[in-house]
Amino acid sequence: MNISWEDAQTFLAVAEKRSFSAAARALEVRQPTISRRIANLEERLGTQLFRRGKQGAALTDNGARLLPAAEQMARWAGEFGRLAAGAQEEVAGVVRVAAPPGLAVEFMAPFAVLARERLPEIRIEVLASIEHVDLSRGAAELAVRTRSPREPELMTMWTGRVELGAFASPDYVATLPEAPTPAQVDWITWAFPYLHLEPRPFLERLVPDFTPVFASDDFLVQKSAVIYGVGAMILERTSHPLARDLGLVEIDLGFDIPAGELHLVCAKSMQYVPRVRAVADMLTEQLQTLTHD
Fold this sequence. Notes:
Layout: H1 5-17, H2 20-27, H3 31-45, E1 50-53, E2 56-59, H4 61-85, E3 93-99, H5 101-118, E4 122-128, E5 142-145, E6 154-168, H6 170-173, E7 188-190, H7 200-206, E8 214-216, H8 219-227, E9 233-236, E10 249-251, E11 257-267, H9 274-287
Parallel strand pairs: 3-4, 3-5, 7-8
Antiparallel strand pairs: 1-2, 5-11, 6-9, 6-10, 6-11
């Protein structure tokens, strides 16, 4: 039986969004179109793919068995689009870069200033995502990650290490002992549902019975609390040359916090697309101002 990409794309959208209406919005079609496509697909396959209810659409067992194949079709569809885009010689268009929230704020925002000056025909879109976006399916062209990719269809274009330190406002630092221990510092870090994100696990290992003085699921909220003197936060020691000086000072804890890693990641098939290569080269140049190899 021949299953078209349109059928698989519709099935995958409903499976991922768990809603016919949300899938319709994602695919930019009307909800009746989604319902008709799924009904036709179920009739051709002779099986029910989704259970409809007030909570949305849930995969049946037969639908769940089809999900990996649909995901693979999506990857190949993205691959086809990237290879087709590779034929474009003009250094112009949109390049989407995924980055963790802190890096998106501290690095990608000032990077956009240089990108606009040097690559005026390219428009940068930054996806500030805590979870990894799927580069293999074209969710973004490039990503700055804190871990090396394991997916075989992805490649690391550059790797570096970033030095970290504990930073706070001068007014807060003035309230600390001359040589504070980590337990004497009021820490600001991630809140639920991101308790697994660094540096919170590091602080939990470092400080017995660790309890932050302030926590948030938003990086900008955490950073604002530091600026207003609520407590201290672990940040990169080096900022982008264009980043604004917020007047934070480093707290001497008597030891070095382990360095973090940064990886510039790209789908293998996108590495030679001119607009992507231009942004990747510029990102590599600018990331080197933050890190050491």
